[in-house]
Amino acid sequence: MARKIEKTRYEGGREGALTTLGGVLLALGIIGLIAGVVLASSRGAWAEGGSSWVWVSIGGASLIWGIVMFALLGAAAEAIRLLKKMVGMQYAGEISEGKPYKVLVCSACGKPPVKHEEHYAQGDFRKALTAAKKCENCGATFDDQ
User: What secondary structure does DSSP assign to 18-68, as a single string?
Assistant: First the structure.
């Protein structure tokens, strides 16, 4: 049975501020896109011809800017967290981790025994991987296990 335990978490620091700023800039980019579309459609901008695409373009550019800043500031915050962890300092937020997964590879060459292109179109890639008797890359034969 599980029990409740107390765990210390930390707030603030530059890494927390960068993450928050990235979220705010992304929200401003979304608001800019909405404002650009609203300005383009208001007061008959589409009928006047010529000025509506400018507003939509400005809105789209603000959205792209918000997405890029969100990604860059998130990466900078992650770098600060990693540096703080390396030197033993406390840091706010969590360090991202990749999720592990398993793949079948040939022990002789280290590549998948079946070439992807031939089997993806047929939808039988996993079946082809497990049923392979010979590596299509190096020609090594597999023992039945």
Answer: HHHHHHHHHHHHHHHHHHHHHHHHGGGHHHH-SSHHHHHHHHHHHHHHHHH
pTM for the model: 0.63
Question: In whole angstroms, what is the distance from residue 66 CA to residue 74 CA?
Answer: 12
Residues 25 and 78 in one domain: yes
Number of structural domains found in the chain: 2
Q: What is the pLDDT of residues 66-88, one digit of tens each?
A: 999 999 999 999 999 999 999 99
pLDDT (tens digit, 9 = 90+) per residue, 22-78?
999 999 999 999 998 888 887 665 555 667 778 888 999 999 999 999 999 999 999
Contact 19, 80 (CB under 8 A): no
* Burial grade of 66 (CB within 10 A; 0-12, 13-18, 19 or more): buried
**Range(s) of the domain holding residue 41:** 13-86
The answer to whether the beta carbons of residues 43 and 70 sit under 8 Å apart is: no
Strand, helix or coil at 141?
A: strand
> Do 44 and 71 belong together in one domain?
yes
